[in-house]
Amino acid sequence: MVRVNENYLKLRGSYLFAEIARRVAAFKAENPGAHIIRLGIGDVTRPLPENVIKSMHEAVDEMACLETFKGYGPEQGYDFLIEKVIEYDYRPLGVELEKDEIFISDGSKCDTGNIQEIFGLENRIAVTDPVYPVYVDSNVMAGRTGYADSMGKFDGITYLSCTAENNFIPSLPEERVDIIYLCYPNNPTGVTISKEELKKWVDYARENKSVILYDAAYEAYIREEGIPHSIYEVEGAKEVAIEFRSFSKKAGFTGTRCAYTVVPKEVKAYTGKGEGISLNKLWNRRHTTKFNGVSYIVQRGAAAVYTEEGQEQVKEIINYYMTNASIIRKGLLDIGLEVYGGINAPYIWLKTPGGLDSWTFFDKLLKEANIVGTPGVGFGPSGEGYLRLTAFGNREDAEEAVSRFKTKLSL
Ligand SMILES: *Cc1c(COP(=O)(O)O)cnc(C)c1O
Description:
Layout: H1 15-30, E1 37-38, H2 50-63, H3 79-90, E2 102-105, H4 108-114, E3 125-129, H5 133-142, E4 157-161, E5 179-183, H6 195-208, E6 211-215, E7 241-246, H7 247-251, E8 259-262, E9 268-270, E10 276-278, H8 279-290, H9 296-303, H10 308-334, E11 338-341, E12 347-351, H11 358-369, E13 371-372, E14 374-375, E15 386-390, H12 395-407
Parallel strand pairs: 1-13, 3-4, 3-5, 5-6, 6-7
Antiparallel strand pairs: 2-8, 7-8, 9-10, 11-12, 12-15, 14-15
The chain binds pyridoxal-5'-phosphate.
């Protein structure tokens, strides 16, 4: 009798976006004429930067030609892209990396989901609450947890609550944890972390021989000075941190697929006998065994981000989204709402007015203003009483949404 991986049965259905779709469809059926503004999507909408398109076209032509055709490339990615990453993304921060510390991949979702494979099952995981669900679900699948309680918290995971009361920055855990997932700028709260706060985590990890998995998917949205773009800006972080970066939100690659993971050679995990093992070696083994590299055409597109024109074009797209974010943020502040994020991230985390729970406010916003957000509780129990709005739509919708908040919503 073949057995299933019963850990999968512990997972809860992908309730959040299915439930949003259900409620929006029901509303539409009753109000066919309503113009619904969707501020719930976590996906980019602007086309790829021109320079990226140009490079990918050239790469396609190379593939059509006997002399320049390419088959399998290095699983870890082409040097032409890795060298640019080092030069543009890390050297200006004062962070020096070697080429074999960078692994090009087809996405940070896969990387943050797969990375747990190189760690033992007995490790204690810590995640922030609210959280990007991939970190939790991938550990549930692997068998690192028990079952979820009625709030959706899995037994065996340490949840670090992030609310307005602690400025959405988690406190160090009371019990010992081995693997800590951090994401800054944060999805869903849109807040960032200061270097001092991040240093507390790096120090914790060094003292406890733990590892930090740092998701910096929204790094390109940081606009304020002094906010760390990489965890490696913190002294000692190379000993204890793995960093994930993606071209998805940075350069509109959500449908094109390219990302990378940095695993410094200093980062170690330990055997039962206490022998330190380089995680770089293990991740290299895992990556080269189970992954065959990102398409040459796509890597050429990604490399085109790292040119003068490419940098300008990326900046322009991010400015577009961040102007939306500031319009939404300012509009909501104007009417006395409590909002967070939207300054260094494309997400605005709104405290629901009048103490409404997330879903009640979601329904009210849909019904009165025909605006779709994402209920905060869908990202974890500490998201209850919040709603996420995204800045990834177009300008007209951002402006219209603010005007509806002001005129249609009864507060
Ligand atoms: C969008 C996003 C990513 C990027 O995922 P890709 O697979 O690279 O598209 C990673 N982490 C978080 C928190 C995100 O929101």
